Amino acid sequence: MRAITPEFVGSRIKKIQYWRKVSFGDDIPLIKKIHIDIDLFISMIIVGNHIDEYFKYGLFKKAYSIRRQFILDRQRNIFRKRCNDEKKSRLFDDKAAFNKMFDKYLGREWIDTATCSFKEYREFIERYPNAFYKPADGSFGIGIGILDVSKKNDSLEIFNELKKEKMILEEQISQIMEMKNYNQSTINTIRIVTLIDNTGKTRIMAAVFRSGRKGELADNFHHRGLAAKVDIETGIVESDAVDNELKHYKEHPDSKLLIKGFQIPMWDQAIDMCLEAASVVPEVRYVGWDVALTPTGPSIIEGNCNADPDITQMPLDKGVWDEYRKLI
Length: 328
Hints:
4-stranded antiparallel sheet; 328 residues
């Protein structure tokens, strides 16, 4: 159990203040603040939500019977313990190990600077001078970037810096225009969630269309990205988009393209690929696959064995715990 220190308490107070402001603005009557804070802590005890979820899912305006329909922090812990083997899950957390395991689904070249030689590194950046880099143990799009082709990237100094940071270098992905049109600066992906149920059958549980914002490098939802729910039968986007600041969008705020009604290209291919990939490590039964659509077909960016259900529940403001509970 985490120690309750002054720093811990202070960080939680700041988080509550942030989410109150996002949800209600600056001018919140004192009595409403007190009511929200009391209800938040009661809800944490009764249904097991954490602070972010209370505001993201608007639990403050929902009856407890509705709150229980959402996958919240308590349910995620149950989920993770029942579905995903802890040791095997590390293959998904380590991007080098993941790339080795799922290489056939990546559709791009890559190299691990932590283990490659300087010669191998130089040969790689000669082929891909503007390679994409990301930390082997990173998440939420933190630490990613593109090698600056104006610099002498084949120097031993830069190689040693990348090696020290345990960076993975990857050939940049080229996405099809239908996806690129939503935002030019990011690879706009589909999140496809698979579950190997308690009978051994692999199921598609949810799908989400994701798009980044102008100037960003990733479409990650926790870094200004947008998310909209996709109908898993048709591949058609069935909701408006939402972002992590609880704003809703009928059209992309930068490209102005409509979101709801968009037909995801290569839908059947993407579904088949994720169903096949889900069987590679069957001990990890629950995975959220981030898929790019390239001119040569769908390509897996990464698999998330602790995929946050926020982007599958927020767009339609609908909890999905009942759908999972009977299958795990």
